[in-house]
Design goal:
The complex is a heterotrimer of chains A (about 325), B (about 210) and C (about 450). Chain A is about 55% helix and about 0% strand. With about 325 residues, chain A is mainly alpha-helical. In chain A, helix 3 crosses helix 4 and helix 8 packs parallel to helix 11. Chain A is globular, with a radius of gyration of 21 Å. Chain B is mostly helical and about 210 residues long. Helix content of chain B is about 65%, strand content about 5%. Chain B has 9 helices and 2 strands. In chain B, strand 1 and strand 2 form a beta hairpin. In chain B, helix 4 runs parallel beside helix 7. Helix content of chain C is about 30%, strand content about 20%. In chain C, the strands form 6 sheets. Chain C has a 6-stranded mixed sheet with strand order 2-18-17-21-19-20. A 4-stranded antiparallel sheet of chain C has the order 3-9-8-5, with no helix packed on it. A 4-stranded parallel sheet of chain C has the order 14-13-12-16, sandwiched between helices. The model of chain C has no long low-confidence stretch (mean pLDDT about 85). In chain C, helix 1 crosses helix 4. The longest helix of chain C is centred in the C-terminal third of the chain and has 19 residues. Classes of the chains: A mainly alpha (about 325), B mainly alpha (about 210), C alpha/beta (about 450). At the A-B interface, helix 4 and helix 5 of A face helix 9 of B.
Amino acid sequence: MINQRFVVSISPHIKNGRTVRRMIVTTIAALAPAALWGFYQFGLDAVALVAVGITAACGTEALISRLAGKSSSLSDGHAVLTGLVLALLVPAGVPFWLVIVGAVMAILVGKMPFGPLGGAPIYPALVGLLIVATSWPNEIKSYVQPTTAPTELKVEGAADAEFPRDAVFIDPSDEAEYKTADLFMGKQVGPIGAISPLLLLLGGLFLILRRVARWQAPFGFLVGMGVAAGIGHALDPGGCASASFHLFTGSAMFGAFFLCTDWSSTPVTPWGMFLFGLIGGGLAVLLRIAGLPYGAVPWAIVIMSLATPIFDRITPTPFGKVASHA
Amino acid sequence: MKTLTQEFTKGLWEQIPPFRLVLGLCPTLAVTKSLEGGWGMGLATTFVLVCSNLFISALRNVIPPKVRIATFIVIIATFVVITELVMKAYTPMLSETLGVFIPLIVVNCIILGRAEAFASKNGIGRSLLDGFGIGFGFTLALAVLGALRELLGTGKLTMFAQANLDLTIIPLGEGREFLFKFMVDPPGAFVCLGAMLLLMNLISERSARSKAA
Amino acid sequence: MDISFFSRGIKLSRRVKPGKIERIPPPGRVVLPLQQGSGPPAEPSIEIGEAVKVGQTIARGASNSGADLHASISGEVTAIEDLHFPNGTTVKALVIEGDGKDTWVEPDRDDKPLIASPGELLERIRCGGVIREGSDTKSLAEVIGEAMSPRGYLSPTGSAVAKPVRHIAVRFSDQDPHLDALAALTATIGDETAELDLGVKVLATITGAEQIHFVLDNKQEAPGVDKLADDNDYSVLHVDAANYPCLSSPMVARAVSGKEPDTAFKRVHENGILVLDVNTVLETALAARDRRPVISRLITVGSLAGAGVFEARLGTPLADIASAAGQKEKIGKVVLGGPMKGLAHHTLDFPLTKEISGITLFAQDQVTMAVNDPCVGCGLCAMVCPIRLTPGMLSRYCEFSSWDLAQEAHLFSCIECGCCAYVCPAGRSMVQFMVQGKSELLSTRRSES
């Protein structure tokens, strides 16, 4: 035993066993309830769209890895997550090819050019989503009447003049036509995976408890949206819906818990994360009111992602240092 | 010293402006929405480049070094104005497509770059050949980029709108204007340019490897 | 303002009940390196071939504050040999072949040590070979000296002024929750706190400390220690030692003084806060009263087979200790110290020194290798960093040799606790990057000046 050579490495010599793959699997698990609710509300079409999205994303990643002569990174599950998030953010009525193009673009343009996982400056699924949303603005709005929605929901004929344009095709001037409780419980029209604020909230809290995500960015995002919508509603009730309406519709909850908590495209410092969310939330409401035809929340988060390096500069004062505001 | 043929052909591959020199990217990104915009911009630039190379090369011994940039700009601007007026007169539709980017040829890095790096140091013959080479390379690159983007974006190829020489490669449904609108949007320009750069690098890497083997 | 509601650091599992201390019999041969802790090595004061008794001084501290070294078994000094340390240096070591009799030198007991002058007491600590453990293990006398007159602290007349130490904090539990030697020692003390009391008073006399703090794990029960603190008006602090690294010196210093000491370029004791382990205090008492030098150490031996606390003579081969602890499995990695901050060594053929607080043995299938994937930017490291740095960014700066950026991001504040590497999902060896960055910057600075 004396002459045996042992492994020498730097401390620490133990790890908590957390891997990238596990964290991604946790994220997918947190998304599962909202996705299942979407399947229930929109039927087999939604299931098929999600399957197509995941397959396309994984296929693209495998193909590019092969072409580039790199070892395949499929096993970390990020391609699955990208395809899943993309498919959950489109309405159930979109054509299949749209999801395929989106997933291919997400991996081809949003992820692979930036090297290994952790390089993407913008959430890859959002890149794919926004490419297809700007390319096919009419197809992307193929909303479907959910199974358990209140009958008076208006789906058909929702035009650009409707309000809030991105969120749901319910006219907020008819307050009686929707109930906040219905919206919260997921009885609304919207993207497949984003219609149930309740389940998304639970999934997000699960992520935070498992320490996969931090609370600051989602909290900031919800506060930002709430405050902005509250101010807007107080100033002009006809032009801006109430805060609860904004928070519970569209992809607001999805954005707060699953897009604002991405790794490489969001800040990592506490104040950085909070401000990222806060400004992003305000921006999302602004974009909804001031008129984007589709995807105010994704756009807001993409715009904020570009500013992530700036937010990352807001570091806390290190231990024992005197706070300086230089 | 390169042979005269090499002076010409280097601009077509070895130093093809937007891909190899990575110069003049503003017009490259802005006007390549269509094939027509691509070759139109390319030819306009070629004309200016050749003329300015000719004059700068001829005057290279009398231009004081301290004010050479200003002198270059005056010479280039002269030809840009000529180009602009001619295009407005004879190809009004193309002129409208290219818009402000024709006057902006004055500050195109390629022209100033060739003037500074080549024409002011070489004889008239070489400078002319260099101008033609680089200019045709630029035209080629812009035309390819424009064709790619237009084809993917709208399914059409606009050869020369004024003469109604459009080709519809991929027919679209009724009332649809775009095939894949992202490609003709500004971000699509970056993605296409990146893809072309990748392709260029890939090909030269492969050929270098096969040469070495 | 800090908006991280969740506490920083990491939660590690901790054995609640420390076992009994087992004594390992004096070995037949010991190897005593002349360097025990940082600083210049001691100078041998005996010749080869000389007979020595247990406790006899065999090497004198290098400076007037360096700790002496003593024979840990009786026998004959047979050689001075080279010994390779895990940090890569080579140090001379004295070899003593034992005679098996274990005869001690005559004790020179002083029953009233507190009457002695502070200077005399400090000299006794130095002669007793007491060292202070920590990230920078060195002679306790030297540490006290530094604490009392920091570099460059001069009176208006130009003479060095003794600066009083404000706080002395005594840890009753190991920094690394995987080690439990100190907890076991505390349990052994029980109600017999005379030596602890004496040690604290000696230190207070030397340093003029105003406040004494006892820092215990919140699961530790030590009525004797509590009573001693009560009688003398010392404060007792209970912390959750499982929340690593809350027992590290900077964290303890913050807990006792309410102020955060700067961790860059300045050691904690230079802020007037002396953080000591309980065994150091007991050794101080023995050195001051009985003039009994440090010849043995308490160490935790942790392995797959479980952990145990052992007392062994200095210079005992680690292989002997490991086999006494019942290590049977095939060993893949040997760590001197705890798994969080310990130093890996390539062999067990190394003597027990005063620096070693434990041995952690890993079986071959238990050894984790750093995979060093690229940073994914998840931010977990920034969440756990007790110093509130952004280790992910720092590691990237160091990975790509942007040393200046790393320094701007407060690289030197890093205490190398290893929390970031512990949680990193990409398996990056964060501490490696930090240490590399620091040494690069320091060597640049040295070559510039």
